[in-house]
Amino acid sequence: MRLILLGPPGAGKGTQAKRLEDGRGLVQLSTGDMLRAAVASGSATGRRAGEIMARGGLVPDDVMVGLIRDRVAAPDCARGFVLDGFPRTVGQAEALDRMLAGAGAALDRVIEMRVDGAEMVVRIAGRFSCAGCGAGYHDRFRPPERPGACDACGGSEFSRRADDEAGTVAARLEAYRARTAPLLPYYRERGMLASVDGMAPIDEVARQIAAVLDGVGA
Ligand code: AMP
Known about the structure:
The chain is an alpha/beta fold. A hairpin with a 5-residue loop joins strand 5 and strand 6. The protein is built from nine helices and eight strands. Helix 4 packs parallel to helix 5 and helix 6 crosses helix 7. Bound molecules: adenosine monophosphate. Adenosine monophosphate binds next to helix 2 and helix 3.
């Protein structure tokens, strides 16, 4: 099963992709995580991408396609993957189609996570994660059970993404509207698109995604 989760920043793509990885054995391919790892490593790609990410822009298609090409062809992805954050432009979608066709494969489904723009700012502004194990939290919707301690590993260090600050969030939402939203008609015309209510509670969104996947025989 090869899937794309599509939706603006804060829609919950990462949360649901992680669930699909744990529940269905699909490999989560998050280009945001790949880029953050490249930034942390100080590589040339990381330096170039880091500056663009800090202002909420989109990293150029050629860089992104280069980053994802090896991953989708890696052996662990043979049993299926869920793309979270890619493609973000029509150019990336076309490159992905070519990449998969070259490998004799195709996408099974593109799932749009429908959300309300204003709510996205609240969701993004409150999120943070454990610096030790990466478990995700939210000031309002999912605080740790014991304040200051990670539920998963007990760690006490937390971090917030630099690009989750309000000014950058506005630029990221605008990039979604202008460059990524055109992927909705792109995939709709190809009969690939299904929609779920991204505003629903996490378990309900997961249930709606499962219903879509069961419908394609996953
Ligand atoms: P994310 O973690 O998916 O919100 O991505 C964080 C940032 O990484 C985005 O705001 C972009 O600057 C960059 N990025 C991630 N994926 C892509 C992509 N497919 N195309 C262009 N830029 C990307």
